[in-house]
Amino acid sequence: MGSQLVMAPNWCGCGVLSSNSRKMSTNDFKLSSSPFKFSKPYPRSAYRVTAYYGLTTPPYELDALEPYMSKRTVEVHWGQAHNEHVEKLNKILKSSTFYGHTLEEMVKVTYNNGNPLVEFNDASSLWSHDFFWESMQPKGGSIPQGGVLTQIEKDFESFTNFKDEFVNAALSIFGSGWVWLYLKRNEKKLAVAKTQNAVSPLVWGDIPIIGLDMWEHAYYLDYKDDRLAYVNNFLDHLVSWHSVMVRMMRAEAFVNLGEPNIPEA
Questions:
Q1: Where does the pLDDT of residue 253 fall: very low under 50, low under 70, confident under 90, or very high at 90 and above?
Q2: Which of 16, 124, 161, 194 is most buried (CB neighbours < 10 A)?
Q3: Pairwise CA distance, residues 133 & 125, whole Å
């Protein structure tokens, strides 16, 4: 589920890529040796074409993650903090338009090689929050099965090693940020990374698989300063391994075949 897109009357016809998952199964992820072809970012258009984004509802009831994430936390985090990025981005887009860009493409372009444009923080935060809610499910967590577990064990030597690395990265973030499981495109290997503020692996061309929000608003109402309990409960009880499987299958296709370019209208 990507951010809902409300299109202006003269919209070019390019929609938002959806991460809605359907029931799928796989037991292995085979990354071929064919080179990945990066799509080139498109320049700002001289035409007045604006995409306005809406607040996407999490794919479960707001109390469905209890007791590990309270309804109150979801209401504040999603209904206030997340929604603030929606409103701020839409306000910015009234005077700064992108021609035929999805939200993901906007994040990549506005990062501007480490010199972010004004749109970046809210666009990237909006994308990451949509990704975060879809990284969880009621009665999630525990140890994955099948191809997901096989790939994690291949790249981290064991699931325990992955979990330790993920937890340590999360706890070592100074200030606000995110912790990610992502696929390195060139190495075709899973890795863990921590990022500051609104940055995600998208900006360096890699593929996010799991994203955990480590901003204080994500955990303080439920855990106060106990970030270790927050991260452990995310991995043990909340992470959606089904979403992870779907994302890994999509990542496999992008790495093996090349991510399709968005056509220029």
A1: confident
A2: 124
A3: 12
206 appears as a binding residue in the annotation: no
Tokens of 15: 């929609």
Cβ(198)–Cβ(101) below 8 Å: no
Report domain 71-255's class. Answer: alpha beta
130 labeled part of a ligand binding site: no
**Is residue 155 part of an annotated ligand binding site?**
no
Mean pLDDT across the chain, nearest whole number?
81
Distance between CA atoms of residues 150 and 148, nearest Å: 5
Within 13 A of 90's CA, how many CA atoms are on the CB side? 16
Whether residue 265 contacts residue 40, with contact meaning beta carbons closer than 8 Å, is answered with no
Binding site annotation covers 77? yes
Angle at the Cα of 103 (from 178 to 4), degrees rounded to 5? 105
* pLDDT tens by residue, 149-179: 999 999 999 999 999 999 999 999 999 999 9
